[in-house]
Amino acid sequence: xxxxxxxxxxxxxxxxxxxxxxxxxxxREAARLAGFQELELPSVESLELFQVKSGAGxxxxxxxxxxxxxxxxxxxxxxxPSLARVFAExxxxxxxxxxxxxxxxxxxxxxxQAGRAREFHQFNxxxxxxxxxxxxxxxxxxxxxxxxxxxxxxxxxxxxxxxDLSEALGRGLGASDLPRFFRALDNVRxxxxxxxxxxxxxxxxxxxxxxxxxxxxxxxxxxVTVAESxxxxxxxxxxxLPPPGPAGLERLRQIMALLPHAGIEDRVRIxxxxxxxxxxxxxxxxxxxxxxGDQRALFGGGRxxxxxxxxxxxxxxxxxxxxxxxxxxxxxxAHDRWPxxxxxxxxxxxxxxxxxxxxxxxxVARLRRAGVAADGDLLGxxxxxxxxxxxxRRARRAILVGPRELARGVVLERDLAxxxxxxxxxxxxxxxx
Length: 433
Fold this sequence. Notes:
Strand order of the largest sheet: 1-5-6-11-10-9-7-8
Helix content: 40-55%
Oligomer: single chain
Distance between the termini: 49 Å
Shape: elongated
Mean pLDDT: 93
């Protein structure tokens, strides 16, 4: 009986698996350059952790089951609640601010489509213990560094908003159902105009209030730049919004003022339709999006100042972001920037005759001890077929181990791009091995 992968899951064969691994390696390197330290989290957690803390959207997508101990558990769908649990357990031992990154395999039972699968990798950056907007700017700057290092430079930008400002807009315009108002804002780019107006009206806005809000949203749809931000925010301030609107406006002002100093003012825009879906966001929120095409969201994040307390920890300001690997893949492939795959082999060792196999095996080991990526034949192939295999593996060179050269204590080094070859001694090819 033949078997196949389950729907929403994929096998990753060479060289694709190597390409993905290499991408995660570059993300890790960039995070460390930005001063983040790696945190490793479990793949299975208490079901309650995600039912209560992640909102209805993710709660409906959980891979949940009862374990052999009768406990209700789930495969982890996102990392932030787990991170909050860890920090709450050891908050007194951690000097602030904490800057952690995670690379996790996650699971969500959702409908597979482009950019979405039931199993995927996610890269998270989180800063805990920093109450000011400097943390948000640091996240945006670090995310820019990560994206640039994987080859996405010039392909993305960020949309920025504040949940407190969104709440104040809703209350000030008469919204009686704030969750529905937030959902309507979140769907501004997806909903037809009539449907959007109907949703805003259903949230409690009168027709005149809907018109007023639509005018403001249309002005921020293309993104309000740093240069445009002060008059735009001053106009909203003139609406005399109720609390917590003024606090949200002030945070946006401070962020926009810091962006030029972080060198990322060209890639951040204010967009009032950004509210993010998770219930635990409390202040500034943002999304990265593709500059070209449909400008689809790539990933998002924001501030979650109340989450640590829910796990028994002390009041702790916090913010973070989560980058899914599948949306990054779509972006990079669309612009022909997806990595080629497994890095090419440096050296392929060729046994010129069957009698040379032991010596060729010794050369492979010698090169590896010297830090050279090396491999050799395991199938007893002829000289010509070994050289074809070296080319298929994209090796830079071949080391030919032959009886005449062995008698003189040398081997032949062949450049597989030019065909040039010369005799080399062991000390030249593998110093110190």
